[in-house]
C-alpha cells in the first residue's frame, strides 16, 4: 500500500446542505502507512457560477465568484505513521445563491484539501461538494396575491374569408406555488365566429437564461393539459389543474449569470392564439388567500360544469336567421388529455422527501419545509428531517425530461372529465 492510505474531507454530521450565512464545519482526515514530510496542509472553500457558450462544454466564458477562503491547517513538518484529523470551519456568505446545474452553466460549491509535499514529491488532494439552499419566500414577491389574468383576441379566417374572432382569457388562482401544491388554471373561450376552434392547451414552461457572451435561453415544458375545442358561436369555460413537481426556485437570487423563470402558456391550435402568464416557484408558500376576486377551483367530482353560449350555433346562423336567437342549453368543455409530466425522482421515489400537498388543501395550510430538487436542470439533492440524513443525487446533472418514460403521480389531480361527469358535445340544431 502507498504511504497515504486515506485522505478525505468529512463535513460535520454528514451534512450536504447549508444555508447562506451559516458556518460550514468539518475535518480533514489522513491515514498514513509511513511518515510523510510536507510543506503545508491547506483547506479551501470555494463557490462560483460558471457559464459556457455550448451545451455541456467545460470551457467557461463567464464566471462569478461567491466564496473563496483558504485556511492553513499545518505548517512545514512531518506527519508520523497513523491517523490524523485537522478540523476547520468556514462562514458562508449571506448572499450565496442556491446551487444549480444546467446544460449551459452551474452554481457549485466545494471544499478542497491539499498536502503540499517537498520538491519532486507528489502533492495529495481531495475534495467534497456541498450544496447551498437560499429559500425563496413567495410572500416577499411584490403583488404575489394579485389576480393573474391575461387575454387576447384573434381573427378567425377560413379560406381567406374572415368569419369572426375568438377571445381567449386565461387565469390562475395564484401567482406563486411550491412543490406539491395544486396549480388551478382556467381558460374562458368566446368563439364569435362560424367555425369551430381547435383544442386548447395549457403548458407549464421553465425558461433558464444564461448570460455568456450573449444571452442563451433554455426553454422546456414541465406539464401539459389539453381540452376540447369550442363549437361555433359558443362561449365556454375550461378548468384544469396541475400538481407542481419538485422544481428549481425562480430567479436564483444572488446570481447575475443564471436566471430561472416559469410561465403558463395557454394556446389554441385553430386559430393560432396564445397568452402567457408568469408564475413563481418558491420554497415558502403564499400564506394567505388572494385579496382580489379570483377564479375559483374546479367543481367537485360529479358536478355539472356548464356555461350559456352567447351566440347561436353555426347551423342556425346558416339557416338564414335574421337575428341571433337565444340558446339556453348549457355547453360543457371537457378535457381531452391530462399529461402530468413527473420526473423519476418524484416525492414518493426519494427517501425522506417531503410529502406532496393533498389536492384539497389550500395555500394557507400548505407550508412545506424548503425542499431541494433533482429535476429540470438542477443537481441539488433532497434532504430529510430526522435521522434519515441527506439523500444526494445519483447523477451529475439531470438530462432534459424524457416524457415518454415519466409516470403520473400516485394521486394525480382529477381530470376535467372526472370533475364534470359525462361531457356533452353540445346542443343539436333546433334544441
Automatic annotation (TrEMBL):
Top-rank taxon, per record: Eukaryota
Chain ranges of the Arrestin C-terminal-like domain: 3-137, 162-286
Residue span of region Disordered: 290-329
Record's compositionally biased regions (Pro residues): 292-302
SMART domains xref list: Arrestin_C
InterPro entries, A to Z: Arrestin-like_C, Arrestin-like_N, Arrestin_C-like, Arrestin_domain-protein, Ig_E-set
Family, as annotated: Belongs to the arrestin family.
Protein name: Arrestin C-terminal-like domain-containing protein
Species, as recorded: Pipistrellus nathusii
Amino acid at each position: 500500500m502507498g504511504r497515504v492510505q486515506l485522505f478525505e474531507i468529512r463535513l460535520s454530521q454528514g451534512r450536504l446542505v447549508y444555508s447562506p450565512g451559516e458556518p460550514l464545519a468539518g475535518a480533514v482526515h489522513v491515514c498514513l502507512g509511513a511518515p510523510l514530510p510536507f510543506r503545508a496542509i491547506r483547506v479551501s472553500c470555494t463557490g462560483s457560477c460558471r457559464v459556457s457558450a455550448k451545451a455541456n462544454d467545460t470551457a467557461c466564458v463567464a464566471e462569478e465568484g461567491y466564496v473563496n477562503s483558504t485556511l492553513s491547517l499545518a505548517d512545514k513538518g512531518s506527519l508520523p505513521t497513523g491517523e490524523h484529523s485537522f478540523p476547520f470551519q468556514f462562514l458562508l456568505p449571506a448572499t450565496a445563491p442556491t446551487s444549480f446545474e444546467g446544460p449551459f452553466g452551474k452554481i457549485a460549491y466545494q471544499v478542497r484539501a491539499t498536502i503540499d509535499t517537498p520538491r519532486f514529491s507528489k502533492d495529495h488532494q481531495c475534495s467534497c461538494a456541498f450544496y447551498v439552499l437560499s429559500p425563496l419566500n413567495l410572500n416577499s414577491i411584490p403583488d404575489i396575491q394579485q389576480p393573474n389574468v391575461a387575454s387576447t383576441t384573434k381573427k378567425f379566417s377560413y379560406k381567406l374569408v374572415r368569419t369572426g374572432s375568438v377571445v381567449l382569457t386565461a387565469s390562475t388562482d395564484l401567482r406563486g406555488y411550491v412543490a406539491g401544491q395544486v396549480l388551478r388554471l382556467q381558460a374562458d373561450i368566446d368563439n364569435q365566429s362560424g367555425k369551430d376552434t381547435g383544442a386548447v392547451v395549457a403548458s407549464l414552461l421553465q425558461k433558464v437564461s444564461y448570460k455568456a457572451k450573449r444571452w442563451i435561453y433554455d426553454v422546456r415544458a414541465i406539464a401539459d393539459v389539453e381540452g376540447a375545442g369550442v363549437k361555433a358561436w359558443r362561449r365556454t369555460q375550461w378548468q384544469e389543474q396541475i400538481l407542481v413537481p419538485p422544481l428549481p426556485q425562480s430567479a436564483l437570487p444572488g446570481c447575475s449569470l443564471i436566471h430561472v423563470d416559469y410561465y403558463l402558456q395557454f394556446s389554441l391550435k385553430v386559430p393560432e392564439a396564445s397568452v402567457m402568464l408568469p408564475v413563481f416557484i418558491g420554497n415558502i408558500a403564499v400564506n394567505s388567500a388572494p385579496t382580489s376576486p379570483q377564479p375559483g377551483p374546479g367543481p367537485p367530482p360529479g358536478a355539472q360544469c356548464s356555461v350559456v353560449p352567447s351566440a347561436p350555433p353555426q347551423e342556425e346562423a346558416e339557416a338564414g336567421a335574421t337575428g341571433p336567437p337565444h340558446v339556453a342549453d348549457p355547453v360543457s368543455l371537457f378535457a381531452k388529455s391530462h399529461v402530468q409530466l413527473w420526473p423519476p425522482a418524484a416525492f414518493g421515489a426519494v427517501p425522506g422527501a417531503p410529502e406532496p400537498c393533498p389536492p384539497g388543501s389550500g395555500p394557507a395550510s400548505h407550508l412545506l419545509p424548503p425542499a431541494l430538487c433533482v429535476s429540470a436542470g438542477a443537481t441539488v439533492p433532497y434532504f430529510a428531517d430526522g435521522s434519515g440524513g441527506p439523500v444526494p443525487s445519483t447523477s451529475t446533472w439531470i438530462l432534459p425530461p424524457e416524457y415518454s418514460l415519466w409516470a403520473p403521480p400516485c394521486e394525480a389531480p382529477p381530470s376535467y372529465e372526472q370533475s364534470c361527469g359525462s361531457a356533452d358535445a353540445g346542443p343539436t340544431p333546433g334544441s
